[in-house]
């Protein structure tokens, strides 16, 4: 048990989701502009039920990306590659820098891969430390693996910038088509990303010096390495032969490559379904046979339970915020105080707040995007800047919201209360960085 957990008693993520549900209901009952002909409580509960299953497809996508990502890390090839990197992680200071830089780079490419990659790298570092009796600050390493979610929306999978770059996006008639050169590849965003690649790992390194290893257990003692199962005594040769796995895996990868080559959507084609499809093909290809693949799936599947039971609660919260008009009311409240200069900052602040209740970049953009863009047009504020301000706000409070930490917690076996003291410090750092760049550009 580390020092932080002695004074920071935080409920489990599922209990936090329940408490956030109650808070959202109370806010909707008190402030929602929706008029109900009958019982107001029943009306809000109906909104909750309406939203409860709206993330069902997304839930399945997240379960698969976690499952396939974990299974891929258990393959012999990827396991060897990660272990080579882990050999250099002989202390907390080195580990947090390696984890931060790696995670931030992956986050720029895709947020879904970032979630799994950082968690697996942190776990491998913990396993190595536990095996070799190296004292490390494992919670800080785990929190460092989560920092990619503080920068993902400014990367190539950012929901809002990708959405407005499409020729037929839902606000095309209002703001036109906004090219990626004005948002993701703007001088402001590129400068911010490059600065973050230096500042965030440096900050993690400083934290490693403030919170010494001796204050923590030697790595994740509750974890153990994956030990490949022996081949079954009674099985078909097809189960243990390499060629069925290689054939099926390559079929998937070839189809994926052809689809990407023929795509007319550019970077927008890299959605969760496509990533899961490719991960599925890689998992099958890189395990030595289909039996080994299925055993690895069995090893990894237990970590998906948190997503399955908690995502519906957050979908319900999103339903309340959306159908009651509360999300729009919060956004409009911030925007009403805006001027040309401070509209980006207030868009950033409102997005940060709403993200706590609607932890889905695409879902939040659908609600908040029209409001901030309308305000930007009326005030003469550059549309690309308010889009990126929204993106920065949406990603910042991921460091506070445990929703996206579920895959990390499942893989690393860490608890919310162990990483939250550090993710909150990262959030403060991110808030200062984002505010500074929004003021400078």
TrEMBL record:
The keyword Chaperone does not apply. InterPro entries: SCFA_transpt_AtoE. Coiled coil: none annotated. The chain crosses the membrane at residues 63-82, 94-122, 134-152, 188-207, 267-286, 419-440. It comes from the Bacteria. Pfam families: SCFA_trans. The keyword Ligase does not apply. Keywords: Membrane, Transmembrane, Transmembrane helix. PANTHER family: SHORT-CHAIN FATTY ACID TRANSPORTER-RELATED. This is TIGR00366 family protein. It comes from Shiella aurantiaca.
């Amino acid at each position: 048990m580390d020092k932080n957990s002695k004074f920071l008693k935080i409920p489990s993520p599922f209990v936090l989701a329940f408490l956030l549900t109650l808070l959202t209901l109370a806010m909707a009952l008190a402030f929602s502009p929706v008029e109900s002909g009958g019982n107001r409580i029943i009306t809000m509960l109906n909104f909750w039920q309406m939203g409860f299953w709206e993330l069902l497809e997304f839930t399945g996508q997240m379960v698969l990306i976690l499952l396939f990502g974990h299974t891929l890390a258990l393959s012999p090839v990827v396991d060897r590659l990660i272990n080579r990197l882990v050999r250099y992680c002989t202390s907390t200071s080195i580990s947090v820098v390696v984890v931060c830089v790696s995670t931030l780079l992956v986050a720029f490419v895709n947020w879904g891969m970032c979630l799994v990659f950082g968690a697996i790298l942190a776990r491998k570092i913990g396993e190595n430390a536990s095996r070799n009796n190296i004292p490390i600050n494992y919670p800080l390493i785990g929190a460092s693996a989560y920092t990619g979610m503080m920068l993902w929306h400014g990367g190539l999978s950012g929901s809002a910038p990708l959405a407005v770059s499409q020729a037929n996006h839902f606000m095309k008639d209002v703001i036109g088509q906004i090219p990626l050169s004005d948002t993701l590849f703007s001088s402001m965003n590129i400068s911010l990303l490059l600065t973050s690649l230096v500042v965030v790992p440096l900050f993690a390194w400083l934290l490693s010096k403030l919170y010494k290893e001796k204050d923590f257990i030697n790595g994740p003692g509750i974890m153990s390495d994956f030990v490949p199962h022996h081949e079954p005594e009674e099985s078909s040769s097809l189960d243990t032969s390499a060629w069925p796995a290689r054939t099926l895996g390559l079929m998937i990868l070839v189809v994926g490559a052809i689809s990407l080559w023929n795509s007319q959507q550019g970077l927008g084609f890299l959605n969760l379904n496509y990533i899961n499809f490719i991960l599925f093909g890689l998992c099958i290809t890189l395990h030595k046979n289909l039996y080994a693949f299925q055993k690895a799936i069995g090893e990894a599947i237990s970590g998906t339970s948190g997503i399955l039971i908690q995502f519906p609660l957050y979908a319900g919260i999103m339903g309340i915020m959306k159908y009651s008009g509360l999300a729009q009311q919060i956004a409009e409240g911030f925007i009403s105080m805006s001027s040309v200069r401070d509209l980006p900052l207030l868009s950033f602040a409102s997005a940060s707040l709403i993200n706590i209740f609607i932890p889905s970049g695409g879902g939040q953009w659908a609600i908040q995007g029209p409001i901030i863009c309308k305000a930007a047009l009326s005030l003469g504020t550059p549309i690309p800047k308010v889009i990126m301000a929204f993106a920065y706000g949406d990603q910042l409070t991921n460091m506070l919201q445990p929703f996206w930490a579920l895959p990390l917690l499942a893989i690393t076996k860490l608890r919310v209360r162990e990483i939250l003291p550090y993710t909150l410090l990262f959030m403060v750092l991110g808030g200062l960085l984002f505010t500074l760049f929004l003021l400078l550009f």
